[in-house]
Amino acid sequence: MNGLQSLSNDLAAAVERASRAVFAVNGRARLGSSGVHWRPGLVVTADHTVHVDEEVTITGPDGRALTARVAGRDPTIDVAVLKVDAPAVAVAEVADSDAVRVGHIVLALGSGPRASWGVVSSVGEGRMLHLDLTLYPGFSGGPLVDAQGRVVGLNTSGASRHWQLAVPAAAVSRVVDELLRRGRIPRAYLGVSTQPVRLPEPVRQRLNLDQQTAVIVVEVQAASPAAEAGLMIGDVIVSLGATRIADPTDLKSALRPDRVGESITASVIRGGEPKDFQVIVGERPRR
Amino acid sequence: MNALIDIAALAEHLRRVTVEVTDAGELLGSGVLWPAGCVVTNAHVVRRPEATLRLVDGRCLRARVLARDSDADLALLGVPGTGLPAATLAEPATIRIGSFVAAVGHPLGVRGALSTGIVCAIGPIERSGRPWIQADLHLAPGNSGGPLADAAGRIVGVNSRAAGPLALAVPMSAVERFVQAARG
């Protein structure tokens, strides 16, 4: 057997292995999505594909339809967690997504199973995996697996039509752990509205910043964590809890659910001068 | 992974069993040298009773359409005495989702072009449609009728069309049935 044949067999074995934990998720009217049996009784999928708030029908690899309940969501990274009783369906083998490097061969799986392949093209902010592969319709919420069939991420094409992305497995596990710990997934918030802003070159040089843009605070909600910390309209946030903030999306992804209650540093520019604030991340009041 | 991955050798092997189907100098598509003395291609590639086949060694031969089935989108042409060995077929059971596949053809007139990917799914793309080998692989006009092969160069299907970035190939089992029926 030549090298190509053995690679081919490895890829097929990886699909077979990983697809045992893949569900079809019928969370929206037209196009279904996929989901991964992440922990016993917990299926994760792409949040943007779950339009219902209560019950969702999901179909296991054995073709059996089951009723799942939406247990929590983290729209900041496009993850929804569904609770279901599916003891007969295998639980995914989740690998360390921090070990994923640019150039690694990966497979994207959808329910069916269906598969596509390619490589990791870059690793972005929050270790989001940018992929050089095709996510076919219905692949959102399915697993990104390595050549051994271990899950390294959750595929999503929701955030952008131009990029094929996967949420790293570590971030998905954080959300699932948070749900198990608190019984729900809280939504972290600061209480600011922001807009992207370009940093003037002299300011960048003087403050030794490598980012071109940041976000400017255009609203501070009364009695919010931001107001308590002393943030004001006109402050330019350049980083939050060691995460560089280049646009409002970065701010969203820095506000992870597990950071609720944590004190983090907001580095801002006020009147041209750098200033650090300690902010205690709040939980967005539920409506 | 230390084993040599030689895709160039696979491409070379597939080019030997791939023909160019033309008529009056116009490129119509591709074809597979199989079974011996014949070429199989898509029905939509050959609409006239005869076509010209250009072999890998540059020889151009006139060939007659022996059978045509537009529902299955398959056609069989007779080319006796080429002296070239016919393609080898894969065992249907060896085709798995995720396994490596390669296509050779003449997309947009590019002679002997190779594209590679994996088997995405096997089955119809719409309810009650006919089964396809769906490959995660790029095809363009001119690939029609050419081979889809496994990692060992054995033919798994005849490339028929693209559905966006997805390649659709007629499974070899359907091609064999067509050829058997055509030969009586």
Strand content of chain A: 35-45%
Q: How many β-strand runs of chain B?
A: 12
**CATH class wording of the largest domain in chain A:** Mainly Beta
Q: CATH superfamily of the largest domain in chain A, called what?
A: PDZ domain
Total number of helical segments of chain B? 2
**Average pLDDT over all residues of chain B:** 93
**What is the CATH T-level topology of the largest domain in chain A?**
Pdz3 Domain
| Class inferred from helices and paired strands of chain A | alpha+beta
Write down the secondary-structure element order of chain B. HEEEEEEEEEEEEH
What is the molecular shape of chain B?
Answer: globular
Continuous helix count of chain A: 5
Largest contact between chains: A-B, 25 and 24 residues
* Sheet with most strands: strand arrangement of chain B: 1-2-3-6-5-4
Approximately how much helix is present in the residues of chain B? Answer: 10-25%
Radius of gyration of chain A using CA atoms only? 21 Å
Classify the beta-strand content of chain B into a percent band: 35-45%
Number of domains of chain A: 3
Spell out the CATH superfamily of the largest domain in chain B.
Trypsin-like serine proteases
CATH topology type of the largest domain in chain B: Thrombin, subunit H
Helix content of chain A: 10-25%
Q: Could you give a quick summary of the protein structure above?
A:
Chain A is α+β, with helices and mostly antiparallel strands. Chain A has 5 helices and 20 strands. Chain A has 3 domains: 16-83, Thrombin, subunit H (Beta Barrel); 97-182, Thrombin, subunit H (Beta Barrel); 188-283, PDZ domain (Pdz3 Domain, Roll).
